[in-house]
Amino acid sequence: MKLAFEDLYTQRAEVAEVYLAHWMEMTLGSGLEPMIDFACSVDEHCDGVVLWFHSKSSRWCWKRSPRRRAAKRRARDYRTKRNLKASVDLAAGKLNFNRAT
Q1: CA 48/CA 45 separation, integer angstroms
Q2: Residues 84 and 72 sit within 8 Å (Cβ to Cβ)
Q3: pLDDT tens for residues 12-36?
Q4: d(CA 45, CA 32)
Q5: How far apart are CA 17 and CA 99, in angstroms?
Q6: Residue 50 in contact with residue 9, Cβ under 8 Å?
Q7: Is the distance from CB of 72 to CB of 86 less than 8 angstroms?
Q8: In whole angstroms, what is the distance from residue 12 CA to residue 58 CA?
Q9: How many angstroms from the chain centroid is the CA of residue 32?
Q10: Strand (E) positions, 18-57?
Q11: Fewer CB within 10 A of the end CB, N or C, for the chain?
Q12: How many CB atoms lie within 10 A of CB 44?
């Protein structure tokens, strides 16, 4: 099961989610408590695991980045979470300023 999980990262993005679901089903039915605990942990972070296949990066990297911390310091005086999110997205380069006319 461990090797099967490692094989997950050799899969193409299109089949990774299906492969992960199959691996989790196999692991949960194994009866091995440590593997079941690990599968439950992977299930909690399934969105992030699948996201990795599409972007080859994780949100974890951004959460701990110095750019995010700097944007958060600049945004301390913002009144709403929406403004804070806009500041962080701007620093990350996620805002699209191209409008369709």
Answers
A1: 5
A2: yes
A3: 878 888 888 888 899 988 888 988 8
A4: 20
A5: 33
A6: no
A7: no
A8: 17
A9: 26
A10: none
A11: C
A12: 9
